[in-house]
Every structure is written in C-alpha cells, then in structure tokens.
Write a structure and sequence with these properties.
The complex is a heterodimer of chains A (about 525) and B (about 450).
Chain A (H helix, E strand, L loop, with lengths): L19 H4 L19 H4 L18 H12 L22 H7 L2 H4 L11 H18 L3 E3 L5 H20 L1 H4 L4 E5 L5 H8 L3 E5 L9 H8 L4 E7 L11 H10 L3 E5 L12 H4 L3 E3 L20 E3 L11 E9 L5 E6 L16 H37 L15 E3 L2 H4 L5 H10 L6 E2 L9 E3 L7 H20 L1 H5 L12 H6 L8 H6 L1
Helix pairs in contact in A: 4-13, 6-13, 7-9, 13-16
Chain B lengths: L34 H13 L7 E2 L12 H7 L2 H4 L11 H18 L3 E2 L6 H16 L3 E5 L4 H11 L5 E5 L19 E7 L10 H10 L3 E6 L18 E5 L15 E5 L12 E5 L5 E5 L6 H4 L12 H39 L14 E5 L4 H12 L1 E2 L2 E2 L10 E5 L6 H18 L1
Parallel strand pairs in B: 1-12, 3-4, 3-5, 5-6, 6-7
Antiparallel strand pairs in B: 2-8, 7-8, 9-10, 11-14, 13-14
The chains are: A alpha/beta (about 525), B alpha/beta (about 450).
Chain lengths: ~525, ~450
C-alpha cells in the first residue's frame, strides 16, 4: 500500500494499556464519600458476621481517578466507531447517533425517575412511551405496540410467543399442540431459530430460490402438512432483497392456519416507503438501535418493540401503556395509565417498562427527522447501497442479479482463485480505515460480504470505500500475501481464536492463584 | 448519484416493491423539529414527572446511588458508545478489554469462576438461569422460594411457560420474612432452587444453608441479587455455595431512567461455562505473542448453533456493562465496601427510628442490608401519597402493589445519598401524617 492509496486512515498514537488489575496499587483510591452522618452501630449488630464477606474484596482494583480516566481513554483509542467513519456492517444499520438524543435521555426528569413511581407523578414519562408506540404503529401499519422487549432477539421471542398464545386461544391448547412448526428461511438470522425454539416450536427451513427469494413451491409444500404455526421472515431479506411475493407468502401461511412474523431488522429500507401491516404481516419486531439510531454501545443496550395487528393485540406483554380519555388530568390533558388488565397476554418479558432510555432517543430521532426526513433517510440508505452495488460489480462477484435495497451482498469467488478469502478482504479493509462489512452471513452465500452503508455516508466517503475495495481486489491479484497477512496497521494482529476457545481464559486472576491452578 | 447508476428518480430505487404496497401518502408522524423546539418539548414532559425531583426512599429493584462524574464522561466517548458488538477484534480491543475486566469484576464480587458479557437485566438473567439449570441437570422442576421480586417471577413465568419447566413456589416465613428453614419441595426432579438475597423485603437469606439443601437433592442453587451494592458487604453467593448467581447491576453507576436500560450480571462455576447463555470474552494472542481479547466459545451461540443455542440473546447491554465497570473500578476495593457500609448504617438508623414512632413496627425479624419493610398504622399507599404531596418525599413502595393482603406494609430503602436531614424529614413526616389521620 503506498501512501497515496490511503485517503482515509492514518497512523496515530496507540498506547499500551494493562488490565486495571495489573495497574492496581495497594491503598490507592479514586472516590470520596461524605462522612457518615447518622449514629453508628457496630456493623456485626446490623449484619451477623456469618453473612458478611470475609475476603476483604481481595483482587478488586485500587486505583486513582486519573488512573481510571487514562485507562479507559487509552482503551477507547483501540476501537473503531461510527464517529470515525463508515461502518458498513450489513444487517446492523450503523447510522449516526445524534448527540441531541443523548442529551434528551439525560434530562434529570427522566434519568432520575424511578420505574415504580406513582403513575400520576410520571405522566411525562408515560406519555413518551405512548407517543412512541403511536408513531411506530403508523410506521409499521400495525396498531398494537409493546416497547417492553430489550433487544431484537427479545422482540422476536415476544412475537413468536404471541403467535403461540394466539393459536392456543384460537384452536384450544389441545388442538394447537399439533401445530408446533415454525418456518424459517435458510437466509435468516440465527436469532430466529433460537427464538422459535425458546418459545417451544420446532424449526423447519424454507429454501431460497436462485434469485435469492423465498421458494414459494417449497413453502406451499411444507404448509400442506397442516402443522404450521407460522413463518418468520426477514423483509427485505438478509440478502438485501425485497420479498416481492410477500402478499402471496402471507396468503399461503394464513390459508394453512399460520401467522406471519416479520423480523424488522431491515426496516431501514422501508420506513416511509412501505408498511409491513399493509403486506399481510401479523407481528413484527423493530430494532430501535438500528432503524431509529439509538447507539449500539459496543453491544447494546438495544430496544426491540413488538408491533402487531389488532387481532393479536390482546396477547402483547403486560403492562401496556394506554391513554385514558375519561380520566382527565388537572391541566386538562388526557392521562396515561399502566394497564395490567389483559388476561390473554403472554405475560411480562422484562422487569419495569423496558429500555426506557432508548425510547427517549428513538422518539427524538423521529421528531428531528419529521415524516419527510424519515422517508429521505430511507431513500438515501437505499441509494448508497445501490451505488456500492453498481461501483463494485466490476471487481467482485454478486451472487444474485437482482437490485438490492439498503444492503448488498458480494462474494469472494473471484478473489478466492488466488487464495484470498472474505476474511482476508475484511481484514485488509481495516488498513484502509474502514470497519469491515458483515462477513460469512447470510450462510447460504459462500464467502458472503454483506455491505450496508446506511444514509449516514456522503458521496465522498462512498467513493473512498469503493476505491479501497477496488485496491484490495487488485492486491488480491498482484500481492495476495499483503491481503492474507492484513491488517498491518492495528495495535495487534489477527488473534488465534481457535486456541482461545480450546483453553478459555475468561477472567484475570492474580499470578500466584493462576499458577496454583 | 442516481443518474450514475442509471436511475431517474428516488421512486426507481423501490421498483422491487409491488406498487400496491408502496405508501402513496406521507407518514402521519410529526413534522421535523429544531433542537430548540425538541428540547423544550422533552423538558415539558420531564417536568410532569414530579416523582423524579424528590428525596427518594424507593428501591425494590431499582436504586438511587451516587454516580461518580467520570462514569458518564467515559461512556459518552464516541469510541465506546458508537461502536458495534466487537466482531472484528483488531479494531475492537477497547470494548473487548472492558468486557474482560467486567467479567473479572463480576466474578470477584459474586465469588464465582466465570461471568458472561451481560444480560438485558436482572429479571431476564434470572429467567435464563432457570433455563440453564434445566439444561445442566436435565431435570424439569424449579423451586422459587421466599420473597423474590414479583416482576422477576413474572418474567421467569413467561420464559418457562413454553419450556416444559414446572415452577413451584415456597412462601416466605411470615415472622422472619425469610425462606422457611426446611424446604419440602426439593426432590430428584428438581433442577434448581431459586432464592433472592437480600430478598424483596430486604431480608438477608441464609444462602449457605439453602445451598446445602439444594445440593443434597442434586439440584443447583440459583441466587438472585437485585441490589448489587450489597455484594460490597455481604458474603458472596459463591462463597456460600451458589451454582449460578445473577444480579441487577443498575446500582453500579446506572441512572434510574424509569426502569432501563440496566444490565444483568450472570456468573457460574467453571464446569458450567459451556452452558452459559450470551457472549463471553476470552484472552487470545496474535502471531507476535501480543495479548488481546476476542469473543469466544461462540459455538454456544445462536449465530452458529441456531435453534440448539444456549440462548437467543445477541445484542446485550454493552454500554451499561461499561458504566458498571467504570463504577466498580473507580470505587474499587475500598469504595465498594465503604458505600455498602454506609447503606447498611443509614438503613439501620432509619429502621430503628421508624420502629420508635407510635403505630409503626418492623414486621420481619431477619437481618437486612439497605431495605426493610415497615408496618404502618393505616393504609400504606395513602400514607405514602400524603408524604409525597405534603413533604415532598418518596417514602417507599406500598407492598399492596404486589401483595394485596398487606395493605399497611411498605418497603423503605436507604442509601448513601440519603442525608441525615432527609432521613429525619422522613421520620417527622411519617409521625405527623400518622398522627393527624389517627
């Protein structure tokens, strides 16, 4: 790589930083509490000795405040993040996280509010839940909304449990016992089968066609067995393709007595353009930490609302947040209530109301964008993906010749002839200053590279990305070793993950304890 | 760009969506707001949350503790909060090392061997612990005993209803508030005994004795901790013999935020490491022998094992785990104990003083940490609502919310942030209001 090829990345200071336990010094502290201001009792009189710790918290770090600041600041420099640039992880929707939303979530009237506060004294907080529910119902075309699930997979589990509860209510527990098959396309996220299993279903896989869409003939055949409870479908699917037969798919499943759950991980391709409720879908989850820009935080927190048809609404988790028109507040407005009275509900899936802080951020996202802005964001996300699909077609193989939506999948077919595989291309991309795309997913595409640019990337950075990918394609031919040994610019090289899994070290231990066994 | 790729209009981008499915109107959501308007709107809403502005003695699974200033500073660094799950270790070492330290700290505090990278919260962590116990023991009955947080039990119920697990419940001892000394429900079908300590009423359970009973029946002991701060003072569940420990980590530097996001801590014994749900970070080395960290033992997880995975969890609570890590490291070995001791001292002072007020008593005899039940002279919900209206104090939780047969009981929580003046105002308020309505 010559310096002129590099348009984005540059080298920078990278401090080594030990584990905090290795930095610890006996007697150091980084806090101060006020003196105890009540009459003191001997601690043994409060808590009997046998219930007290006797290890003096040995091993916990003893460090100063500046030690802590430097420790985390140094570690932070080893992370790639959206704020450094394009983060094209397919299916993950890594879009810009507005600082305004962070400010909203930190307003003391929300941040200091206890979840068990009297509902009359938490009206603002409840109104926000209600309004977000209302907007998500409009965006999905599905009127029943619960914001309780904490993440996408949690929303999936909730949605599938709702299907089960509905079928049990419709057919009777005994009759529905024979309806325990959940259909899942072979391109689905791994969370789908895991969530179905958690809800007591057995999974049957539906094939994809050579065009990358759900195989209708296969779907019909399996639906004819009579034991189908439902279908879990991602749309656009994980190949980035809109399932254009979605209405017929829903019809087939409905005719067989099943329901259709849509995995909404890819809603960033649809907001303001088309609504799952209009397609025949019965229940969906959304990822507020994808489509609605709440930050990923290095792996959460998320928020995975579940949206359903009116028919399925009685089965949503309790409590529900409802508007009470009759019970008018002193100020004259409607009041908002926490309502537990849904006897058919699947029950509670999380303590309290869910990841409330993420709801605040998502509502702020909807309000800052406005209805036209939400649609424009979708258009830009799809346009950016189509641009990449177009620009990289000359250098990388596309498994399906169908126009993609918000993400596009390529393979390493051409590069692998020289021994360069998807993993190598991904690692080399790091040297060019980008986070890699999603790799080896979906599983049905060999050597898959799933690229989702999102709307948060301008023309210039898209071109930088395209240039980097083209450069790697050239390197794969001219200097494959360079790609195979990438990355060259990071603090550490490729780590031996196989060895790490064989003899896992999952925590720090003091030296003498480690050698003792 | 459109023209460069051979399209004419934005509508062309969506040609693969059948025309009858395309929305021909604008969404009926609000029009765009400026920062000024938006903040004013949220501030108006926040002002309607009167409960957020008071001296607070309400706990019950969500606690008001002091949050050192640097916690929010560090989690606000965009390198942490705008990163994804660390799938590419070469450019995610910051997140990965943080999680490794988090796992270590959770092990140290709970007294266990191995901890995962976090669960959604305490309640879902408990549900996952129950499912794990069934996998480990291949038994199908779970006995939940004593006063476990009612919302945690509701979540466990939801999770197990389709898993073929029978959930039995052992009531608490009405005089002590603890689990009864001997549990008759344990047998060779019992996968696990579940206990919370300190329990929902704040009472400290004899975990060691319960571990013995569970193990005698060949069952696992699952210990739930909703007030993680108690770990700074109380014997760790691991040292008392627990097999799985789950905790709500909110007390460690996470704001109340109307119930979330919080973080579930999940720890177990080495021998069960491959049955643990969720993500794990482990040590690894590169070709030059440099130490780094990676996501490991992924063969337990949904993206590899699909329906045979140990859990469906994918996104967890990374940033909140970071907040708790910063908290635990800032407070450190000395601070975690100091805070816990202050909580216990202040709660002890408060409970002793409340018991001296005429008409008030402490119905349970068990030792407590920073929460305790008070039996008042009349309806507790009314008393607390007058205390809020007249004295501007959140006095606690009326137990009738979950236990309709206990109309006069309420649960009081005292932490290091409650000053002597606040506590004395609570005492005065309780005495005056009870007296005036007598």
């Amino acid at each position: 790589m010559t310096s002129t090829d590099i348009t984005k990345v540059t080298s920078h200071i990278s401090h080594n930083e030990a584990l905090i336990f290795e930095r610890s010094q006996t007697g150091r502290i980084g806090y101060r509490l006020p003196p105890l201001d009540v009459d003191e009792t001997a601690i043994d009189e409060i808590v009997p000795k046998k219930f007290q710790r006797d290890d003096d918290l040995e091993g916990l770090p003893e460090v100063s405040e500046v030690d802590v600041i430097r420790h985390f600041t140094r570690m932070s420099t080893w992370n790639y993040s959206i704020d450094l640039g394009m983060y094209p992880l397919g299916s993950c929707t890594m879009k810009y996280n507005s600082r305004l939303n962070e400010k909203v979530a930190r307003i003391p009237g929300f941040a200091n509010l206890h979840p068990l506060a009297d509902e009359k004294e938490a009206q603002g907080a409840l109104q926000i839940i209600y309004e977000l529910q209302h907007h998500l119902a409009e965006i999905t075309g599905l009127p029943g909304v619960s914001l309780q699930p904490a993440a996408g997979a949690h929303g999936e589990m909730t949605g599938v449990m709702i299907i089960r509860a509905y079928i049990d209510a419709r057919d009777g527990e005994g009759a529905s016992a024979n309806r325990r098959t959940m259909l899942i396309p072979d391109s689905a996220h791994g969370t789908n089968p895991a969530s179905a299993h958690l809800s007591g279903f057995s999974v049957k896989t539906i094939r994809s066609t050579s065009e990358g869409l759900t195989d209708l003939a296969h779907l019909r055949e399996i639906c004819s067995h009579g034991d189908v409870a439902g279908l879990m479908l991602t749309n656009p699917n994980t190949l980035g393709l809109f399932e254009r037969n979605i209405q017929e798919i829903c019809q087939i499943v409905h005719d067989a007595g099943g329901l259709v759950y849509m995995d909404g991980a890819n809603m960033n391709a649809l907001v303001g353009i088309a609504r799952p409720g209009d397609m025949g879908v019965d229940v969906i989850h959304l990822n507020l930490h994808k489509t609605f820009s709440t930050p990923h935080g290095g792996g959460g927190p998320g928020c995975g609302p579940c949206c359903s048809t009116a028919e399925l609404e009685p089965f949503l988790p309790v409590p529900r947040i409802v508007k009470s028109e009759s019970d008018v507040s002193p100020g004259g407005g409607a009041t908002f209530r926490v309502d537990f009275n849904y006897p058919q509900s699947i029950g509670r899936v999380k303590a309290f109301f869910g990841n409330y802080g993420m709801m605040l951020r998502a509502l702020a996202y909807i309000q800052t964008h406005g209805n036209d802005g939400l649609r424009e964001a979708t258009e830009a996300a799809v346009l950016n993906s189509r641009y990449i699909a177009h620009e990289l077609a000359s250098d990388y193989e596309k498994p399906f010749d169908v126009p993609s939506m918000h993400e596009v999948v390529f393979t390493d077919k051409r590069q692998s002839r020289k021994g360069v595989h998807t993993l190598d291309i991904a690692k080399r991309l790091i040297d060019y200053g980008f986070h890699p795309m999603t790799i080896y997913f979906p599983l049905i595409v060999q050597g898959a590279m799933l690229i989702e640019p999102t709307e948060s990337v301008g023309h210039q950075e898209l071109d930088q990305f395209v240039a980097a990918m083209r450069a790697i394609a050239r390197e794969a031919v001219n200097d494959p070793e360079l790609v195979l040994n990438a990355p060259h610019s990071t603090r550490i090289g490729r780590l031996d993950e196989a060895a790490a899994a064989r003899k896992p070290v999952l925590r720090w231990k003091p030296k003498q304890a480690a050698s003792a066994g | 760009m459109l023209h460069q790729i051979g399209l004419h209009s934005a509508d062309d981008l969506f040609a693969s969506i059948p025309e009858e499915l395309r929305l021909t109107r604008a969404l009926d959501t609000p029009v765009a707001l400026s920062e000024i308007e938006l903040l004013a709107g949220f501030e108006r809403m926040a002002a309607k949350n009167a409960a957020s502005q008071r001296a607070n003695f309400l706990g019950a699974g969500a606690y008001s503790h002091y949050i050192p200033t640097i916690v929010d500073h560090i989690i606000s660094r965009s390198e942490f909060f705008t990163a994804y799950t660390p799938y590419q270790p070469e450019i995610s070492q910051g997140t990965l090392q943080v999680i490794f330290e988090f796992q270590t700290l959770v092990c140290q505090l709970t007294g266990m061997d191995v901890a995962n990278a976090s669960m959604y919260d305490g309640s879902t962590a408990l549900a996952e612990a129950v499912l794990m116990a069934e996998r480990v023991t291949k038994r199908s009955k779970v006995v939940a005993c004593g006063a476990i947080h009612p919302e945690y039990l509701e979540v466990v119920n939801t999770y197990v209803q389709h898993a073929g697990i029978e959930l039995q419940h052992v009531a608490f001892e009405p005089s002590s508030g603890q689990v009864p000394a001997s549990i008759a429900h344990l047998d060779d079908k019992t996968a696990a005994l579940v206990v919370q300590s300190p329990n929902f009423f704040g009472c400290i359970e004899d975990v060691a004795a319960l571990a013995e009973q569970a193990h005698h029946a060949g069952a696992l002991l699952i210990v739930a901790v909703t007030e993680a701060m108690s770990l700074g003072l109380l014997k760790s569940p691991g040292a008392a013999g627990a097999d799985i420990v789950i905790a709500e980590g909110q007390s460690f530097g996470v704001p109340l935020s109307f119930g979330g996001p919080y973080v579930g801590l999940f720890a177990t014994r080495d021998k069960y490491a491959r049955q643990i749900p969720g993500r794990l970070v482990g040590e690894a080395y590169d070709q030059q022998g440099r130490r780094g960290f990676v996501l490991t033992l992924a063969t337990r997880e949904q993206h590899i094992r699909r329906e045979k995975a140990t859990s469906n969890i994918c996104t967890n609570e990374g940033l909140i785990a970071l907040a708790t890590t910063v908290y635990m490291e800032t407070m450190g070995r000395r601070g975690l104990r100091d805070v816990a001791v202050q909580c216990a001292q202040k709660a002890s002072y408060t409970s002793r003083r409340i018991a001296e007020i005429e008409g008030f008593s402490l119905p349970f005899s068990a030792p407590t940490f920073n929460e305790f039940v008070v039996l008042g002279p009349g309806n507790a919900a009314e008393l607390l609502s007058r205390l809020a209206a007249e004295r501007d104090i959140n006095g606690g939780l009326a137990l009738s919310r979950y236990f309709p047969d206990r109309p006069n009981d309420f649960l009081v929580c005292v932490t290091e942030i409650n000053s002597r003046a606040e506590i004395d105002a609570l005492l005065d308020g309780l005495a005056d209001i009870a007296h005036s309505s007598a």
